[in-house]
Amino acid sequence: xxxxxxxxxxxxxxxxLFRSFNCSMATTTGLESLVDQIISVITNDGxxxxxxxxxxxxxxxxxxxxxxxxxxxxxxxxxxxxxxxYIIRGDNIGVIGELDEELDASLDFSKLRAHPxxxxxH
Amino acid sequence: xLFFSYFKDLVGQEVTVELKNDLAIRGTLHSxxxxxxxxxxxxxxxxxxxxxxxxxxxxxxIRGSVVRYVQLPxxxxxxxxLHDAARREARGG
Lengths: 122, 93
Prior knowledge:
Chain A is built from two helices and five strands. Chain A is an alpha+beta fold.
């Protein structure tokens, strides 16, 4: 069972690794500007996961800290499942959005009803 | 490489990106990269009532692999120029 200490080490190691890989092209959109920000990730299976971006690489694999999943449904308000520290593989990522905390705080999730996002079909 | 150059010229224009999960996001093209990943600013989802998932997102990074269409302003495109460039690329490639 990984200890909290070893998880922190893993986090640091991977952050450094990712940063050293991301220095090639002249025109890289780069997720550099989003590091240490709260982001909203939409995955290919239609899930919405919110967390703090800690690291990334050229394949868009990302490390997300303090993550929680937001489950939307048509019957009940949004549920949040707490996940903790996650690595999400780039293959599975659709959109990474910069979450505006003020806007987010103004949303009333208990009232929000929506169909879940569709999975990505290639 | 052709479309990469093409999108670089379109930076600053308003576009609508339709994704493979049917989500459509409108915004200003901020940047693009070799994988045709797109960064949009000032984003809003086209059908916000149906897709409230991104209500608090104003800037986003869209992975190139999930883009179905990029809808451009009709006067943002020089169709003949693009047509010629594509023909040359196809011949040379």
